[in-house]
Specification:
With 299 residues, this protein is of the alpha/beta class. The chain contains eleven helices and seven strands. It has helices spanning 2-15, 21-56, 58-61, 79-90, 111-115, 127-136, 138-143, 158-165, 181-188, 230-239, 273-276, and strands at 96-100, 119-123, 146-149, 172-175, 195-199, 242-247, 253-258. A hairpin with a 5-residue loop joins strand 6 (242-247) and strand 7 (253-258).
Length: 299
């Protein structure tokens, strides 16, 4: 709603043709101020909504819950906090990662790991995003801390990407490519990370097993048809020795721990979609706190 209101204000401003240039500049400045205020209101409302949600559901008060973990440094959906909490429980080994669909490098699920000493691979298909990564992450790329591939991921190339990067024993893998996520995930199972973060399609009920057929040429069209339901992800994970231990509270990503590291002493069971499903709460997603800094901008 707030986004639509801001867009409407911009359209109104652009449609005003009769006022003088100085007046237009003044109105534009006022709209910018209003936009900032609306962003702050959105952040506040999101925080209140999530806090009330946690208070009303006994599931979130269980100390084994990961959905209630908070931490939003560079991630969009509190993945920073969830990842940190899971590794606090299961430990780390190689401290390496793989992120498929790393975005522009400013916001993703592994930048915090990178900045705290981890090493790994980023893969991103978008050219504009890739240019941003090469610019902002030039130091870790040059130092060999970060390998980067600018290419579209397919079933035919994803394993080779990992092998060529040298990060073949990762602790953490994230896959968020919208349409073909579940199919690419299967290919990455052979690398046996301790933890997977996998995007799921929360529009489908928790008991519905649904997965789109693989289409290499297919991209997400912005509809409810993409990826796989949480139940399908639960099944795929279990078939390969991974247990669903929870989802972020916004209903975007599911977290799977390797079964030799997973127990009901550490995580809430049963490890099923029915137990851990979170519905889509996309409108509640908001960046709280200060703006993210640009890597190496101070250098």
């Amino acid at each position: 709603m707030l986004a639509k209101l801001k867009q409407h204000l911009k359209e109104v401003m652009q449609s005003i043709k009769v006022i003088q240039p100085d007046d237009r500049k003044h109105f534009s400045a006022e709209i910018d101020k209003l936009s900032v205020r609306l962003d702050r209101i959105s952040q506040l409302n999101s925080g209140i909504y999530i806090d009330l949600l946690k208070e009303k559901s006994p599931r979130y008060s269980d100390q084994r819950s990961i959905s209630a973990a908070y931490g939003q440094v560079y991630s969009q959906n509190n993945e920073d906090g969830i990842i940190a909490e899971i590794f606090r429980r299961i430990g780390t080994d190689s401290k390496t990662f793989i992120e498929i669909a790393a975005g522009d490098g400013i916001e993703n699920t592994t930048r915090l790991l990178l900045e705290t000493g981890w090493r790994g691979l980023w893969v991103e298909a978008g050219d504009a995003e890739a240019d941003c990564i090469r610019n902002l992450m030039r130091t870790p790329i040059a130092d060999g801390q970060l390998a980067f591939v600018n290419d579209k991921v397919t079933l035919d190339n994803v394993e080779a990407m990992v092998e060529q990067s040298g990060f073949v024993t990762p602790d953490y893998i994230s896959v968020d490519i919208d349409y073909n996520t579940s199919h690419v995930w299967r290919k990455l199972m052979r690398f046996r990370p301790r933890l997977f973060c996998i995007e799921y399609n929360g529009h489908y009920p928790p008991s519905t097993d649904y997965e789109v057929p693989y289409r290499e040429d297919k991209f997400w069209a912005g509809t409810t048809k993409f990826g796989a339901s949480l139940k399908a992800m639960e099944r795929i994970g279990a078939e390969h020795g991974y247990r669903l231990v929870g989802c972020d509270i916004f209903g975007v990503n599911a977290f799977f721990v390797r079964e030799d590291l997973c127990s009901e002493a550490l995580f809430i069971g049963p490890f099923t979609a029915e137990q851990h499903y979170e519905p889509p709460r996309f409108s509640a997603v908001a960046m709280r706190g200060h703006a993210r800094h640009l890597p190496f901008a101070e250098e």
